[in-house]
Amino acid sequence: MAGELPGLLVNEIGGVHGILRGHVAFLKKHFYLITMKEFLENRKHMSKKVQAIYLWWHKPVIDKELLQSLPNLKVIANSGVGMDHLDLKLVASFGVKMANAPCAVSSSTADTGMALLLASARRLVEGYHIAISSGIEYREADFLGVEVTGATLGIIGMGSIGYKIALRAKAFEMNILYHNRTQRKEHEEQAVGATYCKKIDNLLQQADFVMVVVSLTPQTHKLIGKRELELMKPTATLINISRGAVVDQEALVTALQTGVIRAAALDVTYPEPLPRDHTLLKLKNIIITPHLGIKTDKATYMITEEAVENILAALNGLPIPSEVLPS
Amino acid sequence: MWYHKPVIKEELLQSLPNLKIVASSGVGIDHLDLNLLSSYGVKLSNTPFVVSTDTADLGMALMLASSRRLVEGHQMAVSPDTEYFPANWLGAEVSGATLGIVGMGTVGYKVAERAKAFEMKILYHNRNQRNKEEESAVGAIYCKKIDDLLQQSDFVLLSVVLTPQTQKLIGKRELALMKPTATLINISRGLVVDQEALVEALQNKVIKAAALDVTYPEPLPRDHPLLKLKNVIITPHIGSATEKTRRLMMENMMESIQAGLTGLPIPNEVL
């Protein structure tokens, strides 16, 4: 099949869930795009053409059936950095490589973490509603938030995103503590003035803001539960930009309702969106955002560029820049 | 004085023969007639430095909230009608964008320090250029002409003092010079912006969005068009509204008052 571009399977193009239309021209330069609909309508013809899959917001779902039906599949590239929606061992068992997009997401997600921290501390959403409400005059003298400058930030998960948060927080003269599977190098710590807390408890007890930036693994599932929330200061704020399942949501509801912690700001929940009658949606001391960590024109485009780079490397038998191996 | 009240008029001054000092909370003194006060031999103090970091923090909060559509996003996340989060719902990146700071005093400079950590390109316009060390510490480039700043910035942040010269500093002309993808952030005083021109600019997509901690008046009348625009975030003048800072402000005011009453040099005196 000389001269034909390799087939790239995507879930759909455009609309509310599909690959962004603005990315299509770039993808078509390198690949012959096949949507799931086209694949299902014409399996026999299409199945051999697919050499790569580009996952957009975790779709298409990669299961045994799909893997079995794609004999020439060499690589699956994920949009974003989290891989918790993939069965890494299963994919690897078919000899298929996997890649994520860690570089493209880091600044954008770090910005989101800071945006949530600041919005929660200064009660920005509440303040907005007061400022525009058609109700009775507000008593602005009572309306106080908590200081960010000079406060203590505890970062749980000091990967590339966590580190970018530390860089930003340092400019706010924050005192930075961090907890991570491994300690960072001394010069990295010094560059952001971060102090390692080998025990997460030490971080939780001292932090005014706890920022969760870990990947979701069996070890980090419900990492923040009743015990951890109770170790936090009653004046502290929890910010989650990792995955909803890292936090025990029921325990969080209780903690927020009973003043165990001051407030929470979540870009991620489990599930997304939450059921419309979920208690978290009704609390006053919470900000929830619709998983917008990487939702900017720039970041999404960079994610697609990073995915293409990884796919092309895999198809050409070269080292894959952001390869993800089953642990 | 707390939140500019009580209002100081001649009548009040005449009725208080033993008044020695007015201590005003916050840094702005545009609500006071300095000549009038001094003609009655009354001293004046404010609380300039203690508010700076909180105000700079709020400027950053507004810039991030606006560009990432945080308020809209929250509404979507909690709305009873939401069934899914669309993949094509996007905001704009702050990291690496260009920030133009109009007014590089204490607050403006602290904004620059914070913005630098977001790898932003920083331009600034000020009555006077800052010295080279100060500029290079935050990587800020001086724009002698405000037009240059307005034309290049993705975010224009106002942190000037309100004076007769800065009243309506940002009007129709300035808004038209801004990029159509740009956002205006105001943490100074409502009167620095021509509000009618701003409404028009936002409605006609001359600029993308605005985030205002200050308006004129405060609060705005409940039927004001600014309250209805989707691309506006307004907060109720909370620039210095944290427990810690308010307490510090009060302590500063106490110090100034005590000094004023005992004839000692007054900390934070406004001349």
Automatic annotation (TrEMBL), chain B:
Record's keyword annotation contains Oxidoreductase: yes
One annotated Gene Ontology cellular component of this protein: cytosol
Source organism of this protein record: Nyctibius grandis (Great potoo)
Pfam families per UniProt: 2-Hacid_dh, 2-Hacid_dh_C
Name used for this protein in its record: Glyoxylate reductase/hydroxypyruvate reductase
PANTHER family cross-referenced by the UniProt entry: 2-HYDROXYACID DEHYDROGENASE-RELATED, 2-KETOGLUCONATE REDUCTASE
Record-annotated D-isomer specific 2-hydroxyacid dehydrogenase catalytic domain positions: 3-270
Alphabetized InterPro entries for the sequence: D-isomer_2-hydroxyacid_DH (IPR050223), D-isomer_2_OHA_DH_cat_dom (IPR006139), D-isomer_DH_NAD-bd (IPR006140), NAD(P)-bd_dom_sf (IPR036291)
Statement: the UniProt record of this protein carries the keyword Oxidoreductase: yes
GO molecular function: glyoxylate reductase (NADPH) activity; hydroxypyruvate reductase [NAD(P)H] activity; NAD binding
Family per similarity comment: Belongs to the D-isomer specific 2-hydroxyacid dehydrogenase family.
Taxonomic classification: Eukaryota, Metazoa, Chordata, Craniata, Vertebrata
Ranges of residues in domain D-isomer specific 2-hydroxyacid dehydrogenase NAD-binding: 60-239
